Amino acid sequence: MLRHQPYYDLLADAHEGLPVWAPTIAGLVVLELVDAARLDRTIVDRDWTGVRAATDAVSGLREGGPFRRQLLKIIEQLRDGGPSWSNVNASLFDYGRALDYEGNWSLAVDVFGTVADIARDEKEPQLAIEATTALGGAARRSGDWTKSADGYAQAAYLADALGDKASGLTVRVGTANTHIARGNIPTAKLILEDVIVEAGKSGLDNVQALAYHARASVAHLRGEYADTVSYAHKALEKTTNPSVKDSIMADLAAAFAEMGLRDAARDTHMVVSLTSRYQWVRWQASINLMELSALDGMEEAFNAYAKDLKNAALDPRLRSYFLLYYGQGLISFGKDSAGIELVAEAQEFAQEQKIYQVAHEAGLVLAAAREGRARRAASLPPVFETIPEEVFEVARAMSHLREVALSSPPVSDWSEQPDR
Question: What is the mean pLDDT of the chain?
Answer without folding.
Answer: 88
